[in-house]
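Re: weekly structure request thread

Next one in the queue (268 aa):
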Amino acid sequence: MYEAYARNKYDASGITTWKYNAAWPAALTWQYVDWYLRAGGAYYGAKKACEPLHVQYSYGDHSIYVVNSYYQDFENLKVTAKVLNFDMSEKYSRTASVNVSEDSKVRAFTIDWPEGLSQSHFLSLKLHDSAGQEISSNFYWLSTVPDIEGTKGYRTDRTFYVSPKSVADHTDLMKLPRVQLEMFYDIAEREKESIASVRITNPSQHLAFQIHLSVTRDEDGGEVTPTYWEDNYFSLLPGESKEVQARFDPRDLEGARAVVKVNGWNVE
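Done, posted below.
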């Protein structure tokens, strides 16, 4: 929804969100941060969507946009889009140069979807500045089964309902091959906080989907919360690497040793 608003700013009247944090340790609820101060996938998705210079996909017209929330212009930005099949074979690639004015957005191009896409396929976006430095990236899992709006309204008990005609089918994601990642990390002390610097690599030929990093108390202890990660719940294509940092209060270790752990949707 943040990307949808950014795509339509300032024609859209506004945006609201519910809810930031869970007020009780309930199951089957929704929030960005849970009762235990653990930021979930929704938090990092929203954080990605709200980055000030951002490349994104528009579901409505299949176009690629660059959104600029800075009060300065950017010129000679390079946008690259790649469409990958479930087996990671490249089905489509396109690059374009764009200029984006301050506090605005620009459409780079519209994707021409190729033939022969697997039911679940992937869209990888990269944004580079004029010096070739990557400044934004984005990743989507899409389906050949479309989302089609159906009926909606209120029941007799005044609860709201939606009944779509079609919903994107991503059951194939359950078949993603298992992958083993390579991870190196260092814990440094800085004034009153600890900094975990992590480099993680996907050496496999398969997608590493929804990678989750955490800081724990020793190898078998509980997760340290809150931990402020630059990014989390991200995906890595074959051969890709990523460096992220996390900040946490060393007092929350309760005397234990800080350990960084990695898991994910299909991560060993």
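The chain has a mean pLDDT of 95. Residues 77 and 131 are 9 Å apart (CA to CA).
Next request, please.
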